[in-house]
Amino acid sequence: MCIRDRYMGELHLEFWKELLEENPDIHKLQGLGSRITNTVEETAEQFKRLNDMNPNNIKCLEMYGSFLKDIVNDDAEGQRILDKADYVGKSTNVNKQFVDNERLKYGENSNTCIVTCSGNFSSLGQVVN
Description:
The longest helix is centred in the C-terminal third of the chain and has 32 residues, at 75-106. This protein has four helices and no strands. The protein is mainly α. Helix 1 runs antiparallel to helix 2 and helix 2 packs antiparallel against helix 3.
């Protein structure tokens, strides 16, 4: 996406430079506008495919959200996607802390031991291991 961002930035810059000319070339503007539109649509399709494969890929969400905000100038959708990336990141950290706490409590280097007691009527309450 970084290469696409640069490419899109160059297209936009070329478009606006031509538009600022005293006598802008309409055909050039039309061609640039068409390339910009096609590239935005291709990028959206690629994001959709990637998002279908892994909807919680933080880097992909951040890159596409920034692309929408900075290049396409779609602040609302870009911010929504960036917010999702932030939420996924925070959720991942919370889950990681929980898993790490469980590993610390019951891992092989913990001070916790597990005692198994018998539940059979004849040996009820006896430690079996």
